[in-house]
Amino acid sequence: MKCAIMHPGNKLMTGIGSFHSTHEIERFLDRKLEALKDIVLELRNLIVEIAPHATEKILWGGLSYYDAKRGGPVKGGICQIEIHADHVRLSFLHGAFLADPQGLLQGDRVAKRYIRLEAYESVTWEALEELLRAAVAFDPASNSK
Asked: Where are the alpha helices (H) located in the chain, listed in sequence order?
């Protein structure tokens, strides 16, 4: 992973992408359940590691990650971290096109799929890493993996 450095504007720069500062994320998560914060922060760490080129936005009540070279939060979408009252959803806008050998993805929308995460201890982190890598590699413009 490229070395992360702080830039003006409180953005965490990984050499290519742009992530919010820890302070901004802590403010965003301020009134969320502690158990959910742990899941969100671990997911975020995984995304920074796997997709240092991604752009992070606080969007639609959660955190959205996309490849700006491919488009915005939808067209270039990698994943979203959605925070609900009692769980976190890791959503993939193009999830219907991703290989899911563990059968973790849920949902019946045309393309969007998600994984419901309720407790940090019960998360299969290796399987999530595989899905995140697949989402990063997927190019919706060519509809190929």
From this structure: 22-28, 34-50, 125-137
DSSP 3-state assignment of 4? coil
pTM of the model: 0.83
- Name residue 143's amino acid: N
Q: What is the DSSP letter of 106?
A: B
How many Å is the maximal CA-CA distance in the chain?
Answer: 42
Grade residue 16 by pLDDT with cuts at 50, 70 and 90. Answer: low
Pick left, alpha or beta for residue 143 (phi over 0 → left; psi -120 to 50 → alpha; otherwise beta): left
- Give the Cα separation of 87 and 119 in Å (integer): 8
Which CATH number is 5-137 given? 3.90.1150.200
DSSP state of 122: G
